[in-house]
Amino acid sequence: MENITVTGDFGRKPTLDFSGAEPSEDLLVEVLHEGDGQEVEPGDQIQCHYLGQVWNGGVFDNSYDRGQALAFQIGVGMVIRGWDDGLVGQKVGSRVLLSIPSEYGYGNRGVPQAGIGGGDTLVFVTDILGVH
Question: CB within 8 A of 85, min separation 6: which ones?
């Protein structure tokens, strides 16, 4: 995405730099590194590392610092819609950048205890480690 620069290698905690432009109102998906594993399909249990940050704001969550990847079922509403829509169809071994407008994230309610305000655009770097 022309407004976001991501540094760091697959499997390592990334850093994000925003150019100051306004976020898109659309869900944006950019494959930063395409893996060569199997394609993620709805209903798959996937394992991934991720970093989540508010657009032009702070990091609100990341699995790298915990040293433990997240496993969840994709494409069935267990996670925010931006993840369901943006990660289905990607390949294992891929690093994917997602810019998720609020209607695909936490909407107008946000998650104040996590530092996510109502209407915030969320940016995730997600490393897809495996499908089970």
Answer: 27, 29, 104
